Amino acid sequence: MTDLSVFSNLATIGGRALYSGISLLVLKQQGISSLQFQSLREISAGNVHIAENSQLCYYNTLNWTQLFRTANQKVLIRNNRGHKDCSRDRMVCDSLCADTGCWGPGPDQCLTCRYFSRGRTCVNSCHLHEGICHEKRRREKSKGMKRSMYKYQALISGSVPDPCKDFRRSPQKSLSLSGSDKGGVPSPEIREYANGSVCVECDAQCDRADEESLTCNGPGPENCIKCLHFKDGPNCVEKCPDGLQGANSFIFKYAEANNECHPCHANCTQGCIGPRLQDCIGWMDRTPLIAAGVIGGLFMVVIMVLTAAVSMRRKNIKKKRALRRFLETELVEPLTPSGTAPNQAQLRILKETELKRVKILGSGAFGTVYRGIWVPEGETVKIPVAIKILNEATGPKANVEFMDEALIMASMEHPHLVRLLGVCLSPTIQLVTQLMPHGCLLDYVHEHKDNIGSQLLLNWCVQIAKGMMYLEERRLVHRDLAARNVLVKSPNHIKITDFGLARLLDVNEKEYNADGGKVSSDRNSYKFHGH
């Protein structure tokens, strides 16, 4: 063993357990030529005794007091190799070492450096503006890499080849400055900054500047003059954050054309290529699915609308058929030999549960009229009807006679006569007829008097005359024809109501009260007694 390099990483001798007051003792080591305590910076307690080492050099160059913590510590050196013999064999400190001495040969054994230090090695200057190679920096031109990174390896024997020769490309990553154990030489492309007298390499994310320009002005990625890859805020980064865990959520950013990182849209969850919501990677991937979903949704909406329309149409058709079945006369028998239609008078006897009165429309000589709803038993259709409740004062009438007269009224089928749909034999007799939407002619004339012309009046007169002529042909006299007893289905279509109602009076009554006077009920003489 020619040195004590096994202790090269020893930085402090604490001196907690002393041998005769000595904390460092090197005695009678005849094969040792240097101590090589290159990391030792302090001897906290105890003395130093170095003696009887016939081959030991460099010991006499050291300023031992610089290592002592207290003033009462001492150094005893005797009977080692002489200074002249060491100088003759060139076993002296390197020129880059300061006057404080060294532990052995080479710039990495200096106690302190004369100029600058790079790791454990003393150097003339830091690589502020250029790497070790002074030739123009080589660049990687392959796609996806901005710069080429080079490395070289010192030989195990200690001979360091020219770093500008035979270096290999490493396109995947750059070599950080670590320095070889023997020479402490950095990668030929690494740039540094000077922290006092210490050379510190710039961060790996700093882009190497051109010659005569600084690459960085401090440690860390935030002190780069220019970034090698991307810049995220003040820091240089290898890539923009993509799913980095933040304080409240994951962070996603994208790179602009100037290689600066900017936040993605707040709703992006898988990264992005721009600031908009449409630039989100997940959004772009889902675009075909969203389009398909929208189209499918629209298709379903159209199907639902068509289904609803068809259902409503079928319901309306069913309702119209039901209304036609209940409101219109259907010829179910063949014509008689005479060619005239047979008497198909049908009088429905309705249950009180089938009728629902809504509101009063008015009252007359025979009772009160309600607007109501008729729901035939076993059906779902709701038919708007007029419900006439006869006054009890109209006199008693046998059921058979009443039904005969009601059957005659139900047999009256004419476009200008309101048809009797049915009778409800509740405690008070209820007649159910068609409901005319515009009410009676008297109220209609009062309401639209400014819009009624002679042509409309003449049309009404013709329709009333046709209805009355039909009643005359059926040998039925109305006995109370008035505007209040004419109902308006539409402005061009009116119908006569309450025909034959007076015949439901008691057979012994010769006259009945009507609005404006009394009417005689004699079949051969119809007289009106005005008041």
From TrEMBL:
Keywords: ATP-binding, Glycoprotein, Kinase, Membrane, Nucleotide-binding, Phosphoprotein, Receptor, Transferase, Transmembrane, Transmembrane helix, Tyrosine-protein kinase. It is found in: Endomembrane system; Membrane. Pfam families: GF_recep_IV (PF14843), PK_Tyr_Ser-Thr (PF07714), Recep_L_domain (PF01030), TM_ErbB1 (PF21314). One of its GO terms (cellular component) is endomembrane system. Residues 162-187 are annotated as: Disordered. SMART domains: FU, TyrKc. It is a single-pass type I membrane protein. The keyword Flavoprotein does not apply. ATP binds at residue 388. GO terms for biological process: cell development; ERBB signaling pathway; negative regulation of apoptotic process; neuron differentiation; positive regulation of cell population proliferation; regulation of developmental process. Residues 173-184 have a biased composition (Low complexity). The keyword ATP-binding applies. This is receptor protein-tyrosine kinase.
